[in-house]
């Protein structure tokens, strides 16, 4: 079913304020969750909201906590997230990175002890909308076996690279697993096969069955061994730059996926000067012969956003009913 964007945001805000979350904080969080659903990222919008509420109730997310600065080294800063809402900590860090980049050409802000940022592309868009190149990544709990292994030891460690562009930013937002776990859960709920194999079943065979992959805990890394290596170095960078916890420490602590480490980089650029170059690259890429449509990263999201604002946001009826009935 479809519902108006504003109605979705209002319901999120209502629930948050019922938990005594500050109205300003509740509005900011509700907007990010609603924006995620609006842009078609249901796994980190409406569908993820009940889990976020449980984390608040369990004390894993501290709604009124704000980041505190720990260290500064030129264009690099380290912050402690104090277990505040991950999406607000992330938005703050990208703002700081852009502030540093304004004077230095580049800014890097690393944060430890923070929480899930929901859709990482949000903060790439934030930078690109302001005219900066945005790069950010996070570590996670271990949920991806290293290449050659059968037990999770790596995180799916999302990586975001956003480039400002008139008419719609180019935003690469990808997990290091072939399918983000939110996408696997979506296919599982719909009882649909994956378009291409996304992992192994319990017998060690590649499969398009999302339920079999979540059961075996053997998701496939992008690019096989290359994705495995990329996940490892992103964890190393996030941990070293922030001085925070690694995937290993987060996992072995036995806690849920909280207290993660993240990095936000902003690079100053001349949007107008680069416009023709960007269009040339995109046009050349799209000139390839194809059986279908060739899209640049983020293009499909822009179309979904436009449709959601015009016709309403797609929501799962069961998930929406749960939100509406929340007292």
From TrEMBL:
It comes from the Bacteria. PANTHER family: 2,3-DIKETO-L-GULONATE REDUCTASE (PTHR11091:SF3), OXIDOREDUCTASE-RELATED (PTHR11091). Pfam families: Ldh_2. The keyword Oxidoreductase applies. It comes from Mucilaginibacter lutimaris. It is an enzyme of class 1 (oxidoreductase). Its EC number is 1.1.1.130. Gene3D superfamilies: 1.10.1530.10, Hypothetical oxidoreductase yiak, domain 2 (3.30.1370.60). Keywords: Oxidoreductase. One of its GO terms (molecular function) is 3-dehydro-L-gulonate 2-dehydrogenase activity. This is 3-dehydro-L-gulonate 2-dehydrogenase. The gene is yiaK.
